[in-house]
């Protein structure tokens, strides 16, 4: 039986991680996988997480199963964090999932049950796991235009035209904030135009929000998601706690669904719990419990949000520094967009050959589409990257 297997395509981001590890050069720089790193290159456990873990260790008296949907207190805390009271609880369903990836998977499986013929529309480009999961589930897939590699900005006219043409009942996957891989995001006015287009054509939004707090702050980063949730009749939301709580390996995420009416809530919730049971029974609890403790405690919450804010500001500083260095070294404003982008990533818009040259000559690892993880840089390595790029582009 196992002899029937053939090799699966690799995730290019995870393959890059392996290539970086195998490079013996001490000066190598990892701008690949989306993990936050501080100025020393460490991915620290956040202070609030450490405190919550200590408290949990002292007070937790059982590790018995919780429930198919996870702890309702986690759902309530995350609904509040992401939606901030913009949607009535009686239309909201939620289940904890293994990470944001698990939420994306469960959301698509829910679509498969409810609307098996619906096409899933993805931004071009998007996070590689989106098309990978859609294809694996055998669902129809299509793309809407998103990025203009000449300007480094959203190609908004093209995006809006494509969204307007999507048929009623199809699913439109939108990044809640901090678009991965481009770093280019909609303005508040552009968001409103996208929402108006969805209201007019009856396509159903599915928001993936994995970087709340990494862009313009916890509230601003939730703005698009909240407007979608409160202005459109139904939507799905996949939220990840991996980045903003720094608990990547704990696999902590949540799927939320907003039903058009309260009468549909129970059956929606039941289907989501059913899907959890089919796939893994109970979602992981440890990370979800830490998040619940932090969000529910004034002291822990303020420790967490201030550390998150420091993280966000450090990435903004690196953005500005990199844009400035590139302006100087390339003698052009070509890369000014880096300072305007938000989140962990920017797509530089250089060719795969340039990406490869910089890797071979300078040991700088970025994804082949020229996505860089801003947090992989520090004040010392920004000029090294800027010079490597300027040289390779000559
Ligand atoms: N969605 C996007 C766009 C992402 O970039 C990520 C990666 O972090 C995720 C979802 C989910 O990540 P995780 O499964 O680690 O929570
Ligand atoms: O885009 C990234 O780098 C992050 C981390 O299969 C990631 O979202 C990458 C690949 C993957 C899961 C997470």
TrEMBL record:
Its EC number is 2.6.1.57. Pfam families: Aminotran_1_2 (PF00155). GO terms for cellular component: cytosol. It is an enzyme of class 2 (transferase). The keyword Transferase applies. Keywords: Aminotransferase, Pyridoxal phosphate, Transferase. Its cofactor is pyridoxal 5'-phosphate. InterPro entries: Aminotransferase_I/II_large, Asp_trans, PyrdxlP-dep_Trfase, PyrdxlP-dep_Trfase_major, PyrdxlP-dep_Trfase_small. Belongs to the class-I pyridoxal-phosphate-dependent aminotransferase family. This is Aromatic-amino-acid aminotransferase TyrB. The lineage of its organism: Bacteria, Pseudomonadati, Pseudomonadota, Alphaproteobacteria, Rhodobacterales.
């Amino acid at each position: 039986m196992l002899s029937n297997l053939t090799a699966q395509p690799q995730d290019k981001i995870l393959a890059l991680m392996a290539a970086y590890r195998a490079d013996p050069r001490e000066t190598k720089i990892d701008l690949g996988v989306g993990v936050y790193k501080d100025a020393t290159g460490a991915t620290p456990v956040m202070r609030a997480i450490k405190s919550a873990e200590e408290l949990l260790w002292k007070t937790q008296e059982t590790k018995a199963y919780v429930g198919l949907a996870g702890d309702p207190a986690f759902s309530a805390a995350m609904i509040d964090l992401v939606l901030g009271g913009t949607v009535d609880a009686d239309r909201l369903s939620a289940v904890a999932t293994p990470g944001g990836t698990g939420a994306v998977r469960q959301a698509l499986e829910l679509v498969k049950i409810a609307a098996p013929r619906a096409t899933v529309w993805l931004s071009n480009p998007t996070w590689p796991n989106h098309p990978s999961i859609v294809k694996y589930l055998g669902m129809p897939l299509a793309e809407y235009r998103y990025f203009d590699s000449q300007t480094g900005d959203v190609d908004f006219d093209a995006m809006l035209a494509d969204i307007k043409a999507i048929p009623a009942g199809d699913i439109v996957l939108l990044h809640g904030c901090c678009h991965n891989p481009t770093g280019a995001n909609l303005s508040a006015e552009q968001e409103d135009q996208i929402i108006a287009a969805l209201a007019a054509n009856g396509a159903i939004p599915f928001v993936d929000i994995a970087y709340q707090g990494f862009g313009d702050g916890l509230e601003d980063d939730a703005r698009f998601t909240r407007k979608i949730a409160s202005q459109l009749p139904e939507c799905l939301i996949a939220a990840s706690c991996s980045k903003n709580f720094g608990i990547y390996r704990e696999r902590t995420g949540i799927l939320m669904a907003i039903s058009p009416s309260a009468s549909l809530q129970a059956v929606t919730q039941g289907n989501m719990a059913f899907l959890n049971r089919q796939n893994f029974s109970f979602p992981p609890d440890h990370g979800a419990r830490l998040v619940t403790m932090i969000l529910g405690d004034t002291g822990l919450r303020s420790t967490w949000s201030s550390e998150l804010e420091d993280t966000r500001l450090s990435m903004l500083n690196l953005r500005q520094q990199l844009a400035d260095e590139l302006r100087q070294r390339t003698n052009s404003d070509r890369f000014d967009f880096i300072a305007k982008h938000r989140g962990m990533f920017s797509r530089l818009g250089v060719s795969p050959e340039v990406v490869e040259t910089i890797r071979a000559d300078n040991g700088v690892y970025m994804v082949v589409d020229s996505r860089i993880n801003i947090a992989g840089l520090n004040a010392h390595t920004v000029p090294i990257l800027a010079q490597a790029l300027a040289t390779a582009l000559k």
